[in-house]
Amino acid sequence: MPTVTFIDPDGAAAQVDVRRGETVMRAARAAGIEGIIGECGGFMNCLTCHCYVTAGEGGQVPAPSAAEADLLDCLAERRANSRLTCQIVGEDGLEGAVFTLPSWQ
Amino acid sequence: MATQPKPAGPLPKLRPENYLSREFARGENEHLWGKVWLVAGREEELKGVGDYLTFNVANESIVVARGKDGLVAYHNVCPHRGRRLADGCGRAQQFRCKYHGWTFNLEGKNTQVLDRHDWEGALDDERLDLWPVRVDTWGGFVWICMDMEGESLAEYLETIPQYLDPFELQEMRFRWKVELHLQVNWKVALEAFMEGYHVAATHPQLIQVAGNDYTQSYAQGKHAHFGYWKDVQPLGTPSPRLATKGFEDPREGVIEFFRQIEEDLNAIQTDRDYEAAKRIREVLPQGTDAMTAMVTAIELGRQAAIEDGTQYPEALTFEAMAQAGSDWHIFPNCVTLPYFDGALWYRARPDHRDPENPDKCIYEIWSLKRYGPGKEPKVETRIITDPTTESVGLILDQDIANMTEVQAGMKSSKFRYARPNPVQEMEVINFHQTLERYVLGQSTGGI
Ligand code: FES
Ligand code: FES
Ligand SMILES: [Fe+2]
C-alpha cells in the first residue's frame, strides 16, 4: 500500500496510506486532510480535490487525461504540476509522492 | 412700501400607495431594480481571485466575483433548469450547479454539461454561458446594474463623486454590520435616515449637544442631500429650540457630543475621535469658547487617526466637508452619513423571500471606519429579526421605533397623503418623484 505525503499551505506534513485501487482524494478525505474537499465524489465536476503533485521514489505519477487537463485550466491557482486527486489511483508508482495543497480550496 | 406676503409654495404630497400597495411593489420589481445601479457589497469582501458574494433583490439574484482580470457579475441562475448557482459568499474556482453538476468558469463560460452527448449536438448553438450583469466600483463599494445598456456608474452617480470623493470611502473598512428584517416597506426604513427634521422629536437627548439641529435639503438629480448650513452652531452647544444655555464649560458639551455618538450610535465619528476629544480638557484652558473646543477636538481626532496609521484624506478640507453636508440619499436604496474618520451606510430593499410584500424589508446598517494598515477587524453580520428585543444602540433604536408605527399609521382611512417638509425633507420628496418616474412611467405631479 503506497504511502504519500500531504503538505498544507502552512508547511505541515501528514502521511497517508492509499489503498491499491482507491483514489488519493478518498484516501485523503478518510485521513481527514483539510483542503481536500471532493464535493462531487470524484467525477471531475467540483475541482475541490486540487493539489500540486511531485512523484516520489516509487517513480511516475500517471499523466492527466485530456478531460482532466482541460478542467485544470479553470483553476485560478493552476501550476504545471496541478492535478485532481480524484483521478489518481493508489498503485506502487505512487510511493513517496508529495501532494502540496493550494493556498485555498 | 409694505412688504408683500410671500405667496404659499405648492404643498408637496406623497402617495401612501407607494409604501402600501402590492401593485406598486410589483411595479418596483419590474421597472426599478433592474434598471438602476445598486450596491452589491464592498470591495473588501472580494479581495482574492475566486472570492464571490451574492446579492438578492426583488426576484433577482446576482453573483459578483473577483475573476482573474477583475470583478465579474452574473445572474445567479443555472441555464439548465434554473437552480440558483451560488449561495451567500465564499471563495470558489468555478460556479458549479449542485443539481446536475453543470459548471461555469469565473468568466461565466459553461465548462461542463454532464452527458452532453445526450443532446446530440442540439446544445451546440445554444447559449449556455451565465448571463452577465454590469459591475463597477466607487467608494470601495461594488455596484451592479442588470440593464446592460444605459448610463455608466459614473453617469448614474451624477454629482455624488464630486461631493463625496474627498471622504475616501474606499479607504474605510467594516467596523460592524447589522441586517434587520423589518415588517415595514423598504422606503419607510430608509426615509427614517433621509432628513434631519425628526432629530428634535425622535432623539431629544441629542439636541442638547448637537448644535443647531435645523437642516436644509436639496435635490442633486435623482439623489439628494441635507446639511446644516444656516445659523450654524458648534457641536457641543444646545439646540436654539431649547432655553438651556448648555454646559457651563463648553469643552464638556463637545466631549458629551462625542460620547453620545460613540456610545449611542457607534458610527460616523469613531472611538478614536471620542478618546481624542476628551483630551481638550488637557490642551485647552477652562472657559474656552465652544467653537475653539469643537475645532480642537476634531483636530485632535485627525492627529489620532494619523498616529494610528491612517492617512487623513488630503482633499477633505473643512469647505469640502461643509459643501457635502451631513447625509446623502443615493437613489434608490442607499443613504450615507460620511465623516473623515468613518461613515454610516444604509441599504434597504424589499425582503427577497417575499418580494411583492410591501410590508417587509431587509435593512442593513454598515458602520465604516478608517483603520491603520492591517488593523481592521473581522466583521460578521449581526442579523436581527425582532428589533424590539435586540438593541442596536439608543439612537438607531429610536429611529427604528418609528418605522412600524409609520407603516401601520399610513393605513388609516384618514391618511390620504403625507405632507413632507419642503425645506428639510427634500430628500424624501425628490426620492418619490424620481421613483414614480421609474415605476409609473412619469411623475404623477400631485394627488
Ligand atoms: S472530487 Fe470533484 S473533481 Fe475531484
Ligand atoms: S439545474 Fe443546474 S445543472 Fe441542472
Ligand atoms: Fe434619527
Automatic annotation (TrEMBL), chain A:
Q: Which PROSITE patterns match?
A: 2FE2S_FER_2 (PS51085)
Q: What is the required cofactor set for this protein?
A: [2Fe-2S] cluster
Keywords for this protein? 2Fe-2S, Iron, Iron-sulfur, Metal-binding
For whether the record's keyword set contains Cytoplasm, the answer is no
Is Iron-sulfur there in the keyword field? Answer: yes
Question: Which residue numbers delimit the 2Fe-2S ferredoxin-type domain?
Answer: 2-105
Task: Tell me the superkingdom of the source.
Answer: Bacteria
* TM region positions: none
Q: Which family does it belong to?
A: Belongs to the adrenodoxin/putidaredoxin family.
Protein name as it appears in the record: 2Fe-2S iron-sulfur cluster-binding protein
- Name the lineage: Bacteria, Pseudomonadati, Pseudomonadota, Alphaproteobacteria, Sphingomonadales
Automatic annotation (TrEMBL), chain B:
Q: Does the keyword Coiled coil apply?
A: no
* Rieske domain ranges (all copies): 37-144
- Top-rank taxon: Bacteria
Q: Which residues form a coiled coil?
A: none
The record's SUPFAM superfamilies line, in alphabetical order, gives: Bet v1-like (SSF55961), ISP domain (SSF50022)
Q: Name one GO molecular function term.
A: dioxygenase activity
Key words of the record: 2Fe-2S, Dioxygenase, Iron, Iron-sulfur, Metal-binding, NAD, Oxidoreductase
| Entry cofactors | Fe cation
UniProt protein name = Aromatic ring-hydroxylating dioxygenase subunit alpha
Native species of this protein?
Answer: Novosphingobium cyanobacteriorum
